[in-house]
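**Paired protein data**
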Amino acid sequence: MTPEEGTLPLAGRVAIVTGSSSGIGRAIAGELAARGMTVVVTSRSAQRAQETATAIEEEGGTALGVAVELTDAGAPAALIERVLEAYGRLDVLVNNAGAGQVADSETLAPAEWQRIIDLDLSVPFQCAQAAARPMLDAHRGVIVNISSLTGHIGLARRAAYSAAKHGLEGLTKTLAVEWARRGVRVVSVAPAYVATELLAGTSKAGGFTLDEVAQRTPLGRLAEPQEVARVVAFLISDDASYVTGSSVLVDGGWLADGGWEGMRQPLTEGAR
């Protein structure tokens, strides 16, 4: 049953989650809807956007599916305008849409470099810029940028992706301090390896196995998409009202571990 407005802390608020027809984005959209928000699901595919929105509504939430190619000129602004026309407000933007990249830096094609920079850095800025206008007018709003562990470290053969995510971390801090006194908070969430279909493809391209990732991670396993989604839900809530300009790592201790100890210890059944 759809929650009555006011029965949940986020009821009545509207969120856009870009790239939310699968993986982390799908988990975030579902989590926010379950907490009472109206969620706008975006995908390049109209079918996938609508199927996801329908599934969320069948789970008791409220959702709108929108097909959009965010790299098209003017697309981010048009998306924000459509949401404002539909609901008259925008409270949250989650910049989740993005793409991975694994390639030798000495042979990385300029077009491939530009594709990743456009989608993983320029699009989040353009979406944030468009979303901030009504948020700043209303003197309220939260923007969450889904970054990555590679926004804090360097990994071989991730030149474009790491550069984009490092840029996204810098963008988060800049927008946070610029808009803080005007009522808009901006934060980033930086997952490490999350159990998604995208990771399965990346592991093949990168020449590593998911078990190797689990062995390297102090918690001894990959993250589940819902674990990232719950962090996002906290950050957009009033409980996080004094959090802005921060990057929250959801990495199972990966960045904290500067040694080889985790690789030497066998996984326990509990860690798996």
